[in-house]
């Protein structure tokens, strides 16, 4: 069995007239119409606005709280040639915000410089030491982008120095806002801006638009990058920003992004939201994680291609270094996680793990284990790191009451950063374990996946793929439609990236579909087997290779009923047979004693009765034949296993043995009666040749005669019994055992894989 990581939900749209209206009004497919309705676009106007985002959907920037004051103060600074500092952040949203605001001020002729703090030296947000340095160097107006609302004390100090601050931010608002000259925030409690989901870059874009008295089209591409990279909801104004920004990137990419994408091997003309999420974002973030984010702003503002190309090459190298670091630390973290299998929340500690990538590693561990995770690295006598969580566990509320055992802490329900004294890590583990129990993490429901429809292999085609594009750009709040597919089997299972990911072909009732499954590499062995039922959930993707375009599924989740069947049946046992990491179950004592020594490290040999002491088995390899189907059924019913690997070795298969005929019995009896005191052991082969039967058939004939009392064997001599009692030879136990053995072997050894699968499935379901 393979358990789904999520709860699959199939929303029903029972509005045939509405579906028809959308199909006729917008020219969309019936499937797209149903998706629109399922996502709440239940009027023609709402659907039209969603399907055709444009500049008219950009809200008035002056509707933002304090925008008029911000513009007035900035214009004053420009007119008076005051030294303006744009203070940003080291992530992608912070870099793009900084670039947008700096560009707008430069267009206006302002005396402006920008500063992006260091993740390692300065940390996130307002930093008094840096503020003091900037004031000493002549700063007269501070404009924060993608940060600032948490700087109550720092901005109070600036006020004491006579330095005004314009805060532009989108993060959670604290209970006490800073006394800045202006606080521009889409969710300001004193404002009523119609959309609260702007990114930091989105807010900077609105300020730039207000300063220029027109939408700042020249930097809408940067606003789109910040929006997607910061995982903001792609609805309302954000959808318009990202749609228009992507169009700008495709038609007229700025030198820095053009160079960045070329170095990454991406086709600029095919850029979409996913390109930001998986190509642009990670590369820009690598600067903030491993070097200086200022170079990212420099790249985004570069006018000359030569300059852009040089920075882009550096970014590409840093990104490769980041990928290597993430891979190495993730491998080490997952190995350590195996030591804490009983912990509901993982706290993983490494020496010299690079601080800049710990959040990524934590997210990958959560993805693989399904458990909230802190990943920490040693820094002197402290541990510093990041945590990521699941929808079932509020990480912030779990740790917030325990600030007394941490040096520093901040974050929200899904992510947090912290510094912990080395001697407090046990206490933190205990606090998280207690919080997990309080929050009921063990009984929490799985996160939901909303499935658009159940489709088949033939539905993965150009027509459907292009029909779905009208719903793009995809991202948070507007995910790519998910589809479920029922498979009859799996072929060509291959791992990628050192076993982390999978590629295979899923067989449906009408066609095969290529499947790519990132992060599911651990299922490679499972998928080599067969299941009673196998279902996938994923998105539809286009893949072009060597000029040929195909359509595939990008798998999001998988579930399978029944144990995976790995058909390991063989006619020969070797050391290699016992080299797999499995529990080898033996039914025959002689075979158990003989072969158990060959079971290699990491595996185990079990006498079948001892298997019942196991709570579960990952891979159950059935080495030899049971005495009966009933004995096998008992094991299958009461010993849970994830994978079933039948070997069913038989040294001398009865199924291949010549079955004795009545004439064979008569011929043997006649021979015995005519040859008293026959030394049969010495002349066994001669006798078999005379009777024209195989040796093992002769053995069976003699066993039946002994049980029927037709012959005797004394001191190695075979003699017939005169006038034996009349019996039915086929009723003798030896003959019945032979027939039963033949039937058992036919079912377990000489059946097809599909027939064996059905039999084992039926046996595992039988009532005890």
UniProtKB/TrEMBL annotation:
One annotated GO molecular function: nucleic acid binding
Residue ranges annotated for the Single-stranded-DNA-specific exonuclease RecJ C-terminal domain, each copy included: 565-758
Keywords: Coiled coil, Exonuclease, Hydrolase, Nuclease
Keyword DNA damage applies: no
Domain of life: Bacteria
The family this protein is said to belong to: Belongs to the RecJ family.
Protein name as annotated: Single-stranded-DNA-specific exonuclease RecJ
Organism: Weissella muntiaci
Species classification: Bacteria, Bacillati, Bacillota, Bacilli, Lactobacillales
Name of the encoding gene: recJ
């Amino acid at each position: 069995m393979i358990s789904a990581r999520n709860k699959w939900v199939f929303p029903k749209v029972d509005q045939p007239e509405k579906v028809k209206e959308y199909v006729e009004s917008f020219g969309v497919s019936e499937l797209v119409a149903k998706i629109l309705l399922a996502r709440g676009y239940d009027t023609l106007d709402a659907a039209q606005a969603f399907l055709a985002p444009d500049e008219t959907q950009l809200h008035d920037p002056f509707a933002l709280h304090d925008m008029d004051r911000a513009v007035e103060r900035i214009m004053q600074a420009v007119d008076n040639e005051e030294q303006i500092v744009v203070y940003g952040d080291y992530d992608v949203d912070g870099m793009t915000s900084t670039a947008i605001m700096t560009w707008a001020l430069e267009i206006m002729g302002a005396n402006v410089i920008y500063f992006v703090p260091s993740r390692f030296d300065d940390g996130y947000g307002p930093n008094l030491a840096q503020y003091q340095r900037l004031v000493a160097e002549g700063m007269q107006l501070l404009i924060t982008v993608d940060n600032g609302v948490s700087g109550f004390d720092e901005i109070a100090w600036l006020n004491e120095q006579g330095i005004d601050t314009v805060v532009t931010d989108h993060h959670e608002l604290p209970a006490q806002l800073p006394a800045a000259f202006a606080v521009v925030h889409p969710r300001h409690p004193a404002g009523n801006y119609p959309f609260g989901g702007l990114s930091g870059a989105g807010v900077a874009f609105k300020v730039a638009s207000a300063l220029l008295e027109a939408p700042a089209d020249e930097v809408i591409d940067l606003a789109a990058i910040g929006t997607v990279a910061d995982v903001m909801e792609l609805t309302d104004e954000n959808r318009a920003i990202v749609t228009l920004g992507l169009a700008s990137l495709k038609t007229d990419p700025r030198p820095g992004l053009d160079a960045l994408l070329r170095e990454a091997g991406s086709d600029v003309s095919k850029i979409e939201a996913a390109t930001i999420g998986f190509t642009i974002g990670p590369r820009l973030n690598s600067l903030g994680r491993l070097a200086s984010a200022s170079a990212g702003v420099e790249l985004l503002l570069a006018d000359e291609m030569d300059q852009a190309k040089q920075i882009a090459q550096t970014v590409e190298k840093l990104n490769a270094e980041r990928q290597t670091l993430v891979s190495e630390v993730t491998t080490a973290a997952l190995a350590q996680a195996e030591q804490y299998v009983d912990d509901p929340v993982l706290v993983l500690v490494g020496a010299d793990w690079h601080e800049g990538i710990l959040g990524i590693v934590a997210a990958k561990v959560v993805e693989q284990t399904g458990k909230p995770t802190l990943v920490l690295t040693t820094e002197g006598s402290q541990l510093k790191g990041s945590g990521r969580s699941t929808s079932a566990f509020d990480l912030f509320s779990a740790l917030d009451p325990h600030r007394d055992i941490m040096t520093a802490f901040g974050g929200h329900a899904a992510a947090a950063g912290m510094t912990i004294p080395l001697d407090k890590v046990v206490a933190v583990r205990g606090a998280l374990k207690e919080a997990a129990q309080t929050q009921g993490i063990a009984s929490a429901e799985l996160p939901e996946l909303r499935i658009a429809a159940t489709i088949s292999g033939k539905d993965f085609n150009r027509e459907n793929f292009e029909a779905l594009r009208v719903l793009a750009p995809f991202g948070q709040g507007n995910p790519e439609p998910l589809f479920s597919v029922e498979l009859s089997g799996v072929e060509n299972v291959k791992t990628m990236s050192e076993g982390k990911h999978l590629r295979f072909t899923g067989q449906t009732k009408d066609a095969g579909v290529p499947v790519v499954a990132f992060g599911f590499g651990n299922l490679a062995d499972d998928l080599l087997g067969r299941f009673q039922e196998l279902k996938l959930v994923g998105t539809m993707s286009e893949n072009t290779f060597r000029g040929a375009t195909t359509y595939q599924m990008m798998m999001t989740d998988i579930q399978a009923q029944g144990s995976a069947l790995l058909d390991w049946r063989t006619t020969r046992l070797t050391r290699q047979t016992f080299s797999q990491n499995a529990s080898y179950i033996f039914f025959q004592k002689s075979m158990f004693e003989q072969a158990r020594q060959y079971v290699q490290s990491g595996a185990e040999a079990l006498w079948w009765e001892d298997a019942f002491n196991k709570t579960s088995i990952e891979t159950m390899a059935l080495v030899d034949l049971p005495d009966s189907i009933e004995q096998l059924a008992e094991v299958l019913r009461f010993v849970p296993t994830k994978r079933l690997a039948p070997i069913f070795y038989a040294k001398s298969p009865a199924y291949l043995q010549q079955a004795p005929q009545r004439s064979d019995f008569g011929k043997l009896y006649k021979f015995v009666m005519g040859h008293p005191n026959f030394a049969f052991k010495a002349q066994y082969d001669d006798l078999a040749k005379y009777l024209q039967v195989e040796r093992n058939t002769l053995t069976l004939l003699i066993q039946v005669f002994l049980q029927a009392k037709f012959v005797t064997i004394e001191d190695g001599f075979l003699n017939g019994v005169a006038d034996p009692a009349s019996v039915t030879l086929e009723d003798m136990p030896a003959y019945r055992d032979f027939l039963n053995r033949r039937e058992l072997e036919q079912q377990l050894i000489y059946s097809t894989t599909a027939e064996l699968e059905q039999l084992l499935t039926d046996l595992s379901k039988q009532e005890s």
